[in-house]
Specification:
153 residues, alpha+beta, Arc Repressor Mutant, subunit A, Alpha-Beta Plaits, four-stranded antiparallel sheet, 5 helices
């Protein structure tokens, strides 16, 4: 379903990105509308797949996940069987917060959140026992400077 997004939709989406737990009344007031039209637009945006889900953002460090690694993977394998095994290995591991297939010298980059370096090593050993990779480079994030899931509407 393709829909046209107008300025009011963008305002609603921006408000939801800031804090989706707010009431419809609060969002409607913020964007200068009333509750029912805002609800109808949100429903339309959900049905169209523009709004994929609602969730909460947790403080990783407060929950003991103090280490964030960016893992660069090169592989000499590119066939469908290997890709399926790799995808299955990644989706089975909750430590992998993001995974991207890249253009260029590196084939994949993963964002992996774990408690510490030992936990990363356990993740790494499990991954390489399931799928063949050519090289793996792990980069430890020393400081998170900016992190957002919000799109620039």
């Amino acid at each position: 379903m393709t829909i046209r997004i107008d300025d009011t939709d963008r305002k609603i989406l921006a408000a939801l990105q800031r804090d989706a737990s707010r009431s419809l009344d609060e969002i409607a007031t913020e964007i200068g509308s009333s509750k029912t039209p805002v609800w109808n637009r949100i429903r339309k945006l959900r049905e169209a797949g523009i709004i994929k889900s609602q969730t909460v953002l947790l403080d990783a460090e407060a929950l003991g996940f103090e280490a964030c690694f960016f893992v660069l993977i090169r592989t000499s394998e590119h066939d469908a069987v290997w890709q399926e095994r790799f995808l299955n290995a990644l989706t089975a591991r909750p430590e992998v917060q993001e995974a991207h297939r890249l253009a260029g010298d590196i084939d994949y980059i993963l964002k992996v959140r774990v408690a510490n370096a030992r936990a990363y090593d356990i993740f790494y050993q499990a991954l390489i026992s399931e799928v063949k990779v050519h090289t793996v480079t792990a980069l430890l994030s020393m400081e998170e400077i900016k992190s957002t899931v919000a799109l620039p509407l």
